[in-house]
């Protein structure tokens, strides 16, 4: 049976209508999806964290400087030329060991002159004693006046005073003569030697460096124990408790930890840095640590504010109303909540009032977000927490 042209035309028309309808519906669907995606993308993406309770123990890591228990720069007390030095860098010395000797001919001449002056004055004193005895004998026989006897006695006392002054002068030069020999003040290690044979040194100053300032001849350090100095910021004064200990690491022993015990603190703050110099003491077994070492010092103490909550420091917003946090409500709108801030650190800040443990706080609020704006809450990939806060919230 032959198919009529009208039937074929009707079938073709139906197929065309179906195809056109499919295209229209598909475009409507795509447009709706695009509109929804555009609307969703128009909302700023924010990452939120929940406040966490402050820990019971507070850990604080600060830079420190390790110094010798005793350290003495040694300067000469006489002027002259270095005759010889006997101890070099790293030498172990005992108290009184000779470090160097100085030739001081000018001092030797002054010493000899002082002894000669003493001998001359001593001769005059002896003569005044003989003269006084003679005048006293004549005075007893009334051969001379009492005034003459008194004058002779005064001359003898004056000569005696001159002898004592001359003896003091000789003792002064004897002391300086001993300073021609440079000795170690205590048991320790020579950490610096800044002289050579033939160098000229002057009393109290050592050599002159390029800037014209005096430099020491030697430095001797006692390193059986060490002192650790740490500058503690004033906001962390509460960690300075009498029984506190510090865990110390140094660059040359990365896998080894040392313990330092609290010794004292300056009890005052540097107005330029707002820090207080704090001193710890460290044992130095086998003298493995050297003075001048940089140290990373971890301090731990009980936290009296463990009942408070912490948020990322990056979450803080300072506006004309004061310090605020951008909180996301249940309907995903933003509300700027006024808060009272406690102690602040690099990554976390204590909040004394204004938030609760279930609030959703924007970790790093965008600069253009406003009160009541709707936001899209996103969850960062695990391990990608830019705020460095609350890993347990990831």
Automatic annotation (TrEMBL):
Q: Which UniProt keywords apply?
A: Coiled coil
**Cross-referenced Gene3D superfamilies:** 2.40.30.170, 2.40.420.20, 2.40.50.100, Helix hairpin bin (1.10.287.470)
Q: Which sequence ranges form a coiled-coil region, renumbered to this chain? A: 149-176
InterPro entries according to UniProt: Beta-barrel_RND_2, BSH_CzcB-like, RND_pump_MFP, YknX-like_C
Give the superkingdom in one word. Answer: Bacteria
The protein, known as: Efflux RND transporter periplasmic adaptor subunit
Q: Which SUPFAM superfamilies match?
A: HlyD-like secretion proteins
Q: Which residues form the CzcB-like barrel-sandwich hybrid domain?
A: 72-203
Organism encoding this protein = Gluconobacter cadivus
